[in-house]
Structure formats: structure tokens, C-alpha cells
UniProtKB/TrEMBL annotation:
Native species: Mytilus edulis
GO biological process, one term: DNA repair
A Pfam family assignment: YqaJ
Stretches of the chain forming a coiled coil according to its record: none
Location of the YqaJ viral recombinase domain: 406-558
Protein name, per record: YqaJ viral recombinase domain-containing protein
PANTHER family listed in its UniProt record: EXONUCLEASE, PHAGE-TYPE/RECB, C-TERMINAL DOMAIN-CONTAINING PROTEIN, YQAJ VIRAL RECOMBINASE DOMAIN-CONTAINING PROTEIN
Gene3D superfamilies: 3.90.320.10
Residue segments, region Disordered: 1-35
InterPro entries: NF-kappa-B_Signaling_Reg, PDDEXK-like_dom_sf, Restrct_endonuc-II-like, YqaJ_viral_recombinase
Basic residues biased stretches: 1-23
Length: 660
């Protein structure tokens, strides 16, 4: 028969507790520890000596109390005991159960043996994952076993070295929890309608107000729906964007299913045309997404610089969180652009395949030898042209290669050129018009461009061939198949029989592939720009044609006798392309104003802007806004080598298709 001991664990006195009590002595003497008396009282609970857990508690209690007292938590232990003794403590309290999980975690020999026995804590982690996803787990856990993987054997992680806040289960374990909760896994932004109904159903007698904290929202970071829904209070209602996204997504998936269905089969021309239309729709939307990301990067970069400056100036204030968030936004936006351009490249290649064009270059940001293409016509030099033009005839100006001595002589004979028309007509302000006028009539030279301007001009000239290579190998095969590029010299704009303006287009796009002297079948004028902005917050490419180029483009279309122009803006990563249509009213104003100001009897600079200039300014803005954005295309680099050309009788150097 086992010997029994009787202890009163329900007595209100502290048991097995050492307390600090002042001796009956003079003031200032040190405190000493004395044991409380009458610890063992009448029996209210019985247990056997082989009740291991109870014996262990009895043996550990003095040590535990000393440790708790050493850290200043003794009063809380007393509160805990009193609450239990008075049956006031709720053992289903989630904090208590999470604390029990912590005890269980630190008591395991290795963390992989950790298990979760409480249904309440399982529900806690399950709901947290649904509401906040992986961020909730990462925030709650702390450092866990960071850094131990190289120092321990595989599968063993010592809990003694784990710096945790809570014993957080992995997402795999959370998925296996049987919580009896029928909660949908909501991943999109917006209201959690199910939870709203759940709260209302459990509190039918109460009323609730739905609100949110806008400062805590992270716009643009969801993977499928874009910005966080602000219930109609956002700048543009997100519902519209979401509907547009869903429409586009549905069309893309329908296209994907159709392409899989037709894989390996012979397609009719009607099917091909439908596929091309659908693929161009996807291409355009990818371009818009790239545009949004670039504009976001510009705004976020501006904000980042502002907060970094504030962080340096305002000592004591911490802007590190917002700085990190902005950096993350920029990083993710750049990743989206990179993925979009890769996808766009594949789509454009597919369109070119349907168009039966073999000119498309799949690689981007690589060199493209344009002289190997049979649809890229470069002008011969001036000496070579003499062999094909009669001695008694003047070489047509449009066949004189740009930036040659002959071209510069012809260009210098004009008071106004296409690239200077905006300034010459007062569209850049009266002061600049006066300065240009004085130089045009030989009264005063304008100051030389500064180093920054020279660098930008040199950058534009050097990269012009790259813009043309992108146009020829990316845009034409996918959007304008069976058209060829022709290099242009200088074209003359006339009023009656008088030559008044010289323009030098960056090329023309023609329907024919003939090495001819005369201009025929010109479909588009070509104007390319390679901006090198000194303002760091500008996007690398234009998403609207700057108004200062509109007059130049109009004059080029007039000189070439075509009704449309392809305007290309090149950067190292991508290029934007616009389609500009001729506006006869604007051309008439340009010609009349040029005649009156520069070829009239008046030898003095304008003293005020004319009525025509004001109307031209309005029309330039109108043309800029109405120009069609075709898309943003992956850029390539271009080169021209004589070795890949073949002899020709005409004025153009023709690419040898066999060497391409």
C-alpha cells in the first residue's frame, strides 16, 4: 500500500514560496529571505508518490519561483494562481493556448517534432493565413532557426537556438489542420463578404460600421487584380480596371485554347486573320501594361528620392519602412516590364509567322545586320550615284545621303528646316523665334549648344540606326508586312514654284521592293528619336509625341507625298511606335507663316506671336493627343556591313538575302 501525503494546494497562502521580508532592525539594513510558515495544512488533494508529474512540480516549484522573482514577474504568477484558485481563468483563452504551444515547442528535442494539440490555435493560424497569407506567418514567427542549416545535421533543429515570437506552423501543416471552418480562401482585394456575414450572424443584436485604414494599403502588389480596392474611392474606380482585366484575360485564354486546338493543322486565311487580330490585341495590352509600369517607376523614384532626403534631414524620424516599400515597388515593376517584353517578343514573332514574314528577329538587345535584308534599302554614296545618273542631270536631293558634305550644302540654303520649324514659327516662344530669325537672315548667330546638348545630339545620331533596326525587324514584320524601308536624303517643300523648307526624314516605308530613283508607293514617312533625358524622372521612351516634333512630321509627310508617318522612340530596352496622320490645315498654316516671316519684305524679327502661331499651337497639341499608339516593342541594335550587300544598278544598296 502506497504512503500518501496530504497538501493543501487550494490554500490562499503562498506555498513553497520564499518571500522577502524586512527584519525588525534599523532602517537601511539589507533584506533577507525567510521561508513562510505553515506550508503544509490539511489535505484537500490526494496523490500517490508515483504521480510523477505532481512530484516534479513540487520539486521544481521553489526554483521556478526564484527565477520568476529574479525577472520581476512574481506578482503575475500570483495573479495567475489566484485566478485559477478562484475559477476565474478561461483555459480556452487563445493567448494562453498559444503560450502552451510555445512551451511545447521549447520542450521538444528537435523542432520537427512540434505538434499542435489545440483546436483553437489551429483555427487561429488557419484564419490568419486566409486573411493575410504568408506575410502573417513571417511576421508572427520571428527568426526561427535562421543560420542553423549549415551547423546541424539534416532534419535536426534545436529549439534552444530558435528566436521565435510564436510557435508558428508551416503553411503545409496549416493546410492539413481540421478546423471545421468552412472559409473560402479569398486572394483578391476588396471586402471579405463571407466574414462580414459571419460576424453579423454571431452578433445579431449589434450593428457594425465597415471601415478601413488607407495608410496600411499596399497598392499594386497583388498578382492578379492590381491595386487594392478602395470601394469606389480610388482615383479611377478599380471595378473598371478589374472588368477590363477580366475581359482581356478571357480573350487571351480563349486565344490560347484556339491555338492549342489548331496546333499542327492547316489554317485557312480567315483563321489566320482572326489569330493576327487577337494577337495584336494582346500585344497592345502588353504595351499598355509596360507603359503603366514605367510611369509607376518614375513616380516611385521621385518619391524615393524625397523620402531619402527627408530621412537625412529629419533626425529622429524613421522613414526606412516606406523607403523599403518603394524600393520593392520599383523592383517588382521592373520585373513586370522584363516579363512583358519577353512575352511580347514571342507574340510578335507569332504574328510575323502568320503574316508569312521572315524578317522578324526573335532576339532582342542584340545586333541586327540590316544590310543582309532584301527589304532594307540604303542609299549609295554621292560618287557612286554619278555612275547611274546622266552627267547633264542634277542628282535628286532625296538620293543624297544625310550628313555628307553635299547634303549640308543643300540644307544650308534653306532658312527653315523641318527640325527647326517649331522654333522658327514661334511655337517655342517669341524670344526663341527672334533669335532664330536673326540667325536665318544672317544678323546674329545663335550660341553653340552646351556640352549636355551636344551629348544628347550625339547620342541621338549614333542610335538612329538602332531605332531603324527595331522598326524594320520588330514592327514591320508584325504590323506592316510586305513593306520595305528606304533611306531618304533631303526633301524640298515648295509653295508654288518656290523652295521654302528643307526636310530630311529618317526614311520612308514603301509598298514596292524596287531599286528605283523616283519616289513611288510611299506609305509612311519615318521619324525616329532617341532621347537622352537629363531629368531622371522621365520615362526612357515617349508615350505621347512631344508637340515640338509635330511640325517636322507634318512637313515630312508633305514632302514625301504620303498621308501617314511612323514615329519611333528608341531606348536600349524598348521602343515605342506611333502612327501620325496628316493634317492639311496645320500644313497650310506652317507654309503661310514661313512665307510671311522668312520670305516676305519684312527684315525685322517678329515683335509678337501671330494669330497663325496660336492656332498652330492648338493644332500641334491636337495631333499629339490624337496620334495612334501602336505599341512598345523590344529594342534591337542595328549595323550595316558592305560584305552582306550585293551589287545593284539603282541608287540603293540592296541586302543579300542569302547572307542573312
Amino acid at each position: 500500500m502506497k504512503r500518501k501525503r496530504n497538501y493543501n494546494y487550494g490554500n490562499k497562502k503562498r506555498q513553497w514560496v520564499t518571500k522577502r521580508r524586512k527584519k525588525q532592525s534599523s532602517e537601511g539594513e539589507p533584506m533577507e529571505e525567510v521561508e513562510d510558515e505553515n506550508i503544509i495544512t490539511e489535505a484537500t488533494h490526494e496523490y500517490c508518490e508515483d504521480d510523477v508529474e505532481m512530484n516534479e512540480i513540487v520539486n521544481l516549484l521553489p526554483i521556478v519561483i526564484k527565477e520568476i522573482a529574479r525577472f520581476g514577474f512574481l506578482q503575475y504568477l500570483l495573479m495567475f494562481f489566484n485566478l485559477i484558485a478562484n475559477k476565474k481563468f478561461d483555459f480556452s483563452n487563445i493567448c494562453f493556448l498559444l503560450f502552451c504551444d510555445i512551451l511545447r515547442f521549447w520542450s521538444t528535442p528537435t523542432t520537427i517534432l512540434m505538434r499542435y494539440p489545440f483546436k483553437e490555435t489551429k483555427q487561429f493560424w488557419y484564419i490568419g493565413k486566409i486573411l493575410f497569407h504568408g506575410r502573417f506567418q513571417r511576421f508572427m514567427t520571428g527568426y526561427k532557426n535562421t543560420g542553423q542549416s549549415c551547423d546541424t545535421s539534416k532534419g535536426f533543429y534545436d529549439p534552444d537556438n530558435a528566436l521565435i515570437n510564436f510557435a508558428v506552423p508551416s503553411h503545409i501543416h496549416i493546410e492539413t489542420f481540421n478546423t471545421d471552418l468552412n472559409l473560402p480562401d479569398i486572394k483578391g482585394p476588396g471586402k471579405f463578404d463571407f466574414m462580414v456575414k459571419k460576424v453579423v450572424s454571431t452578433n445579431p443584436s449589434n450593428s457594425f460600421a465597415l471601415t478601413f485604414d488607407g495608410k496600411k494599403l499596399a497598392p499594386g502588389l497583388t498578382t492578379d487584380s492590381g491595386d487594392v480596392d478602395l470601394l469606389g474611392y480610388e482615383e479611377i474606380p478599380l471595378k473598371i480596371k478589374q472588368d477590363q482585366f477580366q475581359t482581356m484575360y478571357k480573350q487571351i485564354m480563349d486565344l490560347y485554347d484556339r491555338l492549342k486546338h489548331f496546333e499542327g493543322s492547316v489554317l485557312s486565311q480567315l483563321d489566320k486573320n482572326e489569330f493576327v487580330t487577337s494577337l495584336r490585341y494582346v500585344s497592345f495590352n502588353l504595351s499598355l501594361a509596360t507603359k503603366d509600369m514605367r510611369q509607376l517607376i518614375s513616380k516611385q523614384t521621385y518619391a524615393l528620392d524625397k523620402f531619402i532626403l527627408k530621412d537625412e534631414k529629419e533626425i529622429g524620424k524613421n522613414y526606412s519602412y516606406v523607403i523599403d516599400v518603394i524600393k520593392t515597388n520599383i523592383y517588382r515593376a521592373k520585373a513586370v516590364i522584363s516579363d512583358a517584353l519577353k512575352a511580347h517578343n514571342c507574340i510578335l514573332n507569332a504574328i510575323s509567322h502568320f503574316n508569312k514574314s521572315n524578317e522578324y528577329v526573335m532576339d532582342f538587345c542584340n545586333k541586327v545586320d540590316l544590310s543582309a535584308s532584301p527589304s532594307f534599302f540604303n542609299l549609295k554614296d554621292h560618287n557612286s550615284l554619278k555612275e547611274i545618273i546622266n552627267e547633264d542631270e542634277e542628282t535628286p536631293t532625296h538620293l543624297i545621303k544625310q550628313r555628307t558634305k553635299k547634303w549640308e550644302e543643300i540644307r544650308a540654303a534653306f532658312k527653315v528646316t523641318g527640325s527647326k520649324a517649331h522654333q522658327a514659327l514661334g511655337l517655342d516662344g517669341l524670344k526663341k523665334q527672334k533669335a532664330f530669325f536673326q540667325e536665318a537672315i544672317g544678323q546674329q548667330r545663335q550660341p553653340e549648344p552646351d556640352d549636355v546638348q551636344k551629348k544628347a545630339m550625339r547620342y541621338g545620331t549614333e542610335n538612329e540606326i538602332n531605332a531603324l533596326a527595331t522598326l524594320h525587324s520588330k514592327v514591320l514584320p508584325s504590323y506592316f508586312p510586305n513593306l520595305s524601308y528606304y533611306e531618304e536624303g533631303i526633301r524640298i517643300v515648295k509653295t508654288g514654284s518656290r523652295n521654302i523648307i528643307g526636310v530630311s526624314p529618317d526614311g520612308s516605308i514603301r509598298a514596292s521592293q524596287k531599286n528605283v530613283i523616283t519616289s513611288e508607293n510611299i506609305t509612311f514617312a519615318v521619324e525616329v528619336k532617341c532621347p537622352m533625358s537629363v531629368y531622371k524622372y522621365n520615362t526612357p521612351v515617349y508615350y505621347k509625341i512631344p508637340e515640338r516634333y509635330i511640325c517636322q512630321v507634318m512637313l515630312e509627310m508633305r514632302a514625301l507625298g504620303c498621308k501617314e508617318c511612323l514615329f519611333v522612340c528608341w531606348s536600349e530596352e524598348s521602343s515605342t511606335v506611333f502612327r501620325v496622320r496628316i493634317k492639311q490645315r496645320l500644313i497650310a498654316l506652317i507654309l503661310n507663316e514661313t512665307m510671311d516671316v522668312y520670305y516676305g519684305d519684312n527684315k525685322t524679327a517678329p515683335s509678337r506671336l501671330s494669330v497663325r502661331t496660336k492656332e498652330m499651337k492648338v493644332l500641334c497639341k491636337e495631333v499629339s493627343e490624337q496620334s495612334e499608339f501602336i505599341g512598345e516593342f523590344p529594342s534591337v541594335y542595328g549595323t550595316v556591313t558592305i560584305e552582306n550587300s550585293k551589287p545593284s544598278a539603282g541608287p540603293y544598296v540592296v541586302g543579300d538575302e542569302k547572307k542573312s
